[in-house]
Amino acid sequence: GAGVSQTPSNKVTEKGKYVELRCDPISGHTALYWYRQSLGQGPEFLIYFQGTGAADDSGLPNDRFFAVRPEGSVSTLKIQRTERGDSAVYLCASSQGQGVNEQFFGPGTRLTVL
Amino acid sequence: AQSVAQPEDQVNVAEGNPLTVKCTYSVSGNPYLFWYVQYPNRGLQFLLKYITGDNLVKGSYGFEAEFNKSQTSFHLKKPSALVSDSALYFCAVSHDNYGQNFVFGPGTRLSVLP
User: Fold this and answer.
1) Is the Cβ–Cβ distance between A59 and A49 less than 8 Å?
2) How far is B6 from chain A (nearest CA, A)?
3) Which of A84, A92, B67, B71 is placed for a possible disulfide with A106 were both Cys, Cβ 3.0 to 4.6 Å?
4) Between B2 and A108, where is the model more confident?
């Protein structure tokens, strides 16, 4: 079956612009995660959804970052007033149920802020 | 706060030799431990996990890991390395009091030399 997909694969924007990154999880997976991965580092947790609600958004770095999952499937990560430090690969993952299950990762969106 | 350390940035091993990729963790509750692998231009892939039970966990592609509570370690091992095992390996931890907020280590690059 289809895995986790993310669009776009690459996004180049200018400082101060608004961007949206989309994640389409595996069908039936109720849990969805966003991570940010900078070069040479491990993924950094941003936010976790269980269904439509953000169960843990403690990793969002500031109020410029926001994520939604209105129907419990597709999720959008939104970044306002982008800064050069936001440049990274943004990863999405999904998993089944509410237990501590393995996560299935998408290929990521590489965001470059000029 | 929870944290993960992977003390080696790079591990080199000859094909056919056993390999070990080290991981130590720090959590305030019972740990949930994971290993993921990242191949070039591909998303992270789940290898194995420890939740509870037997300290030796077997996973995909012949990998295994041993949970050692006294040393707070979860080293990844394989008896005989393949050139195709060359990739970036990440250890991750969460714990039962903190839900789904996973912390990833910085990664260890494994190079298996023919």
Assistant:
1) no
2) 10
3) A92
4) A108
How close A42 comes to chain B (CA, Å)? 4
User: Which residues on B lie below 8 Å from A58 (Cβ)?
Assistant: 101
Q: What burial letters (b/e) apply to A30-60, b meaning 16+ CB within 10 Å?
A: bbbbbbbbeeeebbbbbbbbbeeebebbebb
Q: For residues B56 and A75, what is the distance between their CA atoms, to the nearest angstrom?
A: 36
Q: Which of B45, B96, B100 sits opposite A56 (nearest CB)?
A: B100
Do residues A5 and A24 lie in contact, with contact meaning Cβ atoms separated by under 8 Å?
yes
Most confident of A51-60, A92-101, B104-113: B104-113
**For testing the chain A interface, which of B3, B6, B32, B44 should be mutated: the one with the most A CBs within 10 Å?**
B44
